[in-house]
Design goal:
The structure holds two protein chains of two kinds. Chain A is α+β, with helices and mostly antiparallel strands. In chain A, a hairpin with a 5-residue loop joins strand 14 and strand 15. Chain A folds into four domains: about 250 residues, 2-Layer Sandwich (Heat Shock Protein 90), CATH 3.30.565; about 70 residues, Helicase, Ruva Protein, domain 3, CATH 1.10.8; about 140 residues, Ribosomal Protein S5, domain 2; about 55 residues. In chain A, the strands form three sheets. In chain A, strands 5-4-3-6-2-1-7-8 form an eight-stranded mixed sheet. The relative contact order of chain A is 0.09. Chain A contains 20 helices and 16 strands. Chain B is α/β, with parallel strands linked by helices. In chain B, strand 2 and strand 3 form a beta hairpin. The two termini of chain B are about 40 Å apart. The model of chain B has no long low-confidence stretch (mean pLDDT about 85). The chains are: A alpha+beta, B alpha/beta. Chains A and B meet through helix 19 and helix 20 of A and helix 1 and helix 2 of B.
Chain lengths: ~600, ~375
């Protein structure tokens, strides 16, 4: 059910992360959203979900730049204007004139002009982005409502470059009041980067897809939602008022549907359907790899029959828990922010309530460490009264203090058994090997790495291995080369595992390699979140996971080769003994009987020695 | 030549050939029979090859060539060796057939012949060459040479000019071809790849084996063989098997000395001259047929460089390495003090000189002065 989570989710309910959230929000809000959001609606200013679900945390710099640029160009034109203006006019007047031209930019308008930021830069990508957004939202909604997700996706061409995309889920549905805001308003929703493993790291809201559709085809989006068998399904035709960033309900009606609950969204947009690595097919295939509990039924404009991925597990993954930040991962700026916003009245209380693994005993150790750094920080002081220098010392003290690693029950790996099942289903290989490592920690963030290898079967033997990268169960389809996952696969000594590998390249052979990193905070190389950054701890865990899988693969391959060798040698006997017979017959002018006897004897002797 | 003599010569050659061929066939059949009998007893047949490496080579002054030692490697027929075994036996069969049909095959011929052997065929000539070397080594123990196995080298021999008549019997017609090596004008007689059937008539006093074509040309065109009463042989670098065998048979039959005239550098000394005289290290199993123990070293010697004040080039690193290797590892040089001294002298001088450097004193200085002076004092030749 494609939608943004309504705000009353765990994120909001749990009180503890508020400080962290606030601080982070402020940080990012300052940069972008706050400015605009304030003016467009209080809801959006309070939580920057929706469009910014995932990207808000990392992306804010970009819009800011853009806005700045605009002002800059304006100033430039003003400057030239001033040159020609009479000297009688004071700077004041020009400033006022300039001020008159400054005006609010609606988020919707901004994104309408910068669609590439949302993943709509090419017609092929637009189609994929729309599906990705809808699928992410649907899966999150289903899982939150504890429903085994079943997704129905239909891509149909209306014109050669125009497609209707329909995505339906069997989620809880959305109440009538929320529908317009969720689908037809940017920056509305609940998914903000809390310290919890969430999917919503990849794109922007479904509302942007709807807006893109309207912009390119002039057609509004259609949403149907039903919350229970007892209630009728409601169909809305929605458009966005781009200037005000407000939903416009064009048509509303009750409709008959076959399904009991769920949400269906239909968007007509300009886009081209393509097969290949960056296709919808490939995306859904990968979704099914990392989500064994999901069933997907997918129709596209080329294949006649729908493609169906049956679920291999009827158990929903454990819902990831939310955790407090670990002190070792906190940056100085964020620490300062948190201290300004905390309601605790002592540094000690602040540290104990807003971080995990901090006890009064740990606070004492931190305090002791600060003494070693030149200035002992009195942890009974009010956190807001600490000078910046003091906070710096405190921050260093925290870094220097040994403390327990963060809890790891916040992670939700796919698991070895289920990973093996999905790999088996999707590739029909001869062998599947899966490895789920124990959780580990980088910079105070817990994370867990899994690796799976499918070998043989129908996989092409002469090609480079295909790599399937996942972060929190979401496929990473772009920037393979820059990713820590690729790096660790390339860095693995495949030759030791009976697999060919050119220097500095991916291994060659009938291989599909899956690597999944689950973390409350997956570090990406850039704000576009396409590749995992190469932290030493992460690289190490990935390498260990791949190597463990590689070793198991090698055992299988060696055994296989031994058997093949034995088989070949058996053939050797059959192939070459007649030649020895012919030669002996030639040289010694033997009779055929003598030759046959010699050949028989020889076979016997060799077979015996082979078995020994 | 009188018909009678020709007939008796032909008969003799035929007799000798028949004797050799019989020996070859017996050797092959014995080897095959041993394998066959072992198979009948349900044992694992094996072939025993002499080990072909410098570690299994010794120099016996009395015999006069580098001799292969007693070390043998055994190749037992197992699952892993069954292919090589089959190929070896098939090639032995081919050899026997060649003898019986009085034919021959080059290495390349054998490679293509193997294409009839179904799965036992060779996919590269290098494979068939290896098996051929093995067979050659295998039968060298019985004094059967590769030529007797009817496997002939592709390479042809060097050139011959001078006071020599080569008798080449044509067994089909019963005629004996008399080849007079003085009558090639400005050309020369080319040594065939197989020389076993040849015999010689000559009154020459010695054979002069020459490294370079250039000096050979000069001596031949000025009829040096007439003035010095000798036979000239051009080796063109390291002498081929047939050139070595030709000179060997010549010196065996006519019993005249063989003098080598080569460049004064470690290659000329330790590769060309050493191989001519005592054979090569890595084909030691054939040396007894392909060496000329009676050869001695006329020049150019290191002392000549000083005596004749020859223009020189500095020794290259590879030259120095080769000379040091000869002193340290080569059983021939180790057993000859004169050679050890000469090589050490050369190393000390740090230079080398070519045969043709004599041309500095005049193009025909080599004919008019150098060779007569050297030949007048043949006792001083290096061994």
């Amino acid at each position: 059910m494609p939608r943004k989570k309504p705000k009353a989710s765990r994120t909001q309910a749990s009180s503890k992360p508020t400080a962290k959230k606030k601080s982070a929000k402020k940080k990012t809000a300052k940069k972008t959203a706050k400015k605009t959001a304030k003016k467009t609606g209080s809801a959006a200013s309070r939580r920057q979900g929706g469009l910014f679900d995932s990207e808000s945390a990392a992306n804010p710099v970009r819009p800011k730049k853009k806005i700045k640029k605009k002002t800059a160009t304006k100033t430039a034109t003003q400057k030239t204007a001033r040159k020609s203006a009479s000297t009688d006019q004071g700077d004041m007047a020009i400033a006022e004139k300039m001020a008159n031209k400054q005006k609010d930019i609606s988020v919707s308008e901004f994104f309408a002009k910068n669609r590439h930021l949302l993943g709509f830069d090419s017609p092929a990508r637009a189609l994929l982005t729309t599906v990705r957004e809808a699928v992410d939202n649907s899966l999150d909604a289903c899982e939150e409502a504890s429903v085994l997700p079943e997704l129905f996706i239909d891509v149909r061409a209306t014109e050669s470059t125009q497609h209707v995309v329909t995505i339906r889920d069997n989620g809880p549905g959305i109440v009538r009041e929320q529908l317009p805001r969720i689908f037809a308003r940017l920056l509305y929703g609940s998914k903000f980067h809390s310290r919890k493993q969430t999917r919503g790291q990849q794109g922007i809201g479904i509302s942007a897809a709807g807006m893109y559709g309207t912009l390119t085809t002039g057609k509004p989006m259609r949403v149907v939602s039903r919350t229970s068998r007892r209630k009728p399904a409601i169909e809305l035709v929605l458009a966005i008022d781009m200037a005000k960033n407000l939903p416009v309900v064009k048509k509303e009606s009750e409709v008959e549907v076959e399904w009991a609950h769920g949400t269906e969204v239909q968007i007509e947009l300009e886009g081209t359907y393509k097969k290949g690595k960056h296709s919808i097919d490939s995306f859904l295939d990968q979704v099914s790899l990392a989500n064994p509990h999901v069933k997907i039924i997918y129709s596209n404009p080329i294949d006649e029959e729908p493609i169906i991925w049956e679920r291999v597990s009827k158990v929903l993954p454990d819902p990831p828990n939310e955790i407090l930040p670990h002190p070792h991962g906190v940056e100085l700026g964020i620490l300062m922010q948190m201290m300004k916003e905390t309601s605790s009245r002592t540094v000690s209380g602040f540290l104990c309530t807003e971080f995990c693994r901090v006890t009064p005993n740990v606070v004492k150790k931190i305090s002791d460490e600060t003494e070693g750094l030149g200035k002992r920080i009195d942890t009974d002081r009010h956190p807001k009264r600490l000078s910046n220098t003091d906070v710096k010392v405190l921050h260093k003290g925290i870094e220097a203090t040994r403390m327990m690693a963060p809890p790891t029950n916040c992670l939700s790996p796919i698991g070895e058994v289920l990973m093996a099942k999905t790999l088996g289903r999707n590739f029909d290989p001869e062998l599947v090997i899966t490895v789920t490592r124990q959780p580990s920690v980088y910079r105070g963030n817990p994370f867990q790495v899994e690796a799976g290898i499918a070998w043989g079967g129908e996989l092409p033997g002469d090609d480079l291995a295909s790599i399937y990268r996942f972060a929190n169960r979401v496929p990473l389809q772009y920037e393979q080369g820059a990713c820590a996952i690729t790096q660790s696969i390339v860095g693995t000594p495949w030759k030791n595992y009976e697999i060919q590998q050119a220097r500095g390249a991916l291994p060659t052979g009938p291989l599909a390699i899956l690597v999944h990193i689950a973390s409350v905070w997956v570090p990406f190389t850039s704000e576009s979140k396409k590749a995992v950054a190469s932290y030493d701890e992460i690289l190490k865990e990935m390498r260990l996971a791949i190597m463990e899988a590689g070793r198991k693969l090698a055992i299988h391959l060696r055994k296989k080769r031994r058997l093949a060798d034995a088989e070949r040698k058996k053939d050797y006997i059959k192939t070459y003994i007649p030649q020895i017979g012919i030669a002996l017959q030639d040289i010694l002018t033997l009779s055929d009987t003598q030759r046959t006897k010699a050949e028989g004897n020889l076979s016997e002797v060799l077979e015996r020695s082979r078995k020994m | 030549m009188a018909k009678k003599i020709a007939k008796s010569y032909i008969d003799r050659v035929k007799r000798e050939n028949a004797k050799r061929d019989k020996k070859t066939i017996t050797s092959i059949e014995n080897a095959a029979d041993e394998i066959y009998k072992k198979i009948l007893r349900k044992g694992k047949p094996m072939l025993r090859f002499p080990v072909r490496s410098l570690s299994n080579v010794s120099y016996d002054k009395r015999k006069g060539y580098l001799e292969i030692g007693k070390a043998r490697k055994e190749r037992t027929l197992t699952v892993n060796t069954v292919k090589g075994f089959a190929q070896t036996l098939r090639m032995m069969g081919l050899s026997r057939e060649l003898v019986q049909t009085n034919d021959f095959a080059t290495k390349r011929d054998v490679y293509y012949q193997s294409k009839n052997w179904a799965e036992a065929k060779f996919s590269e000539q290098s494979e068939s060459d290896t098996v051929m070397d093995d067979i050659e080594a295998l039968f060298s123990v019985d004094d059967v040479s590769r030529e007797q196995l009817r496997f002939v080298p592709d390479e042809h021999g060097g050139a011959v000019a001078g006071e020599l008549v080569v008798l080449d019997p044509d067994l089909d017609t019963g005629e004996v071809e008399r080849i007079d090596c003085t009558r090639f004008g400005s050309g020369a007689y080319s040594i065939p790849s197989s020389v076993e059937h040849l015999s010689f008539e000559t009154n020459a006093k010695f054979v002069l084996a020459i490294e370079t074509g250039g000096i050979f040309q000069r001596l031949q065109s000025h009829k040096f063989w007439k003035t010095a009463d000798c036979i000239l042989v051009s080796m063109a670098g390291v002498p081929t098997r047939s050139t070595r065998r030709f000179i060997r048979r010549l010196s065996d039959q006519i019993k005249i000395p063989v003098y080598a005239f080569v460049d004064c550098d470690p290659y000329g000394i330790s590769n060309i001259y050493r191989t001519l005289k005592v054979g090569s290290g890595n084909a030691a199993h054939i040396n007894r047929f392909f060496c000329v123990p009676s050869a001695s070293y006329l020049g150019v010697t290191p002392q000549d460089i000083i005596d004749y004040d020859l223009p020189t080039h500095p020794l290259k690193d590879v030259d120095i390495k080769r000379a040091k290797d000869a002193l340290k590892n080569d059983p021939f040089f180790q057993s000859k003090k004169q050679w050890r001294d000469a090589l050490e002298q050369l190393l000390k001088m740090g230079v080398r000189a070519e045969q043709q450097s004599l041309a500095m004193w005049g193009l025909n200085y080599v004919i008019e002065t150098y060779l007569p002076a050297k030949l007048a004092n043949s006792k001083k030749f290096l061994p």
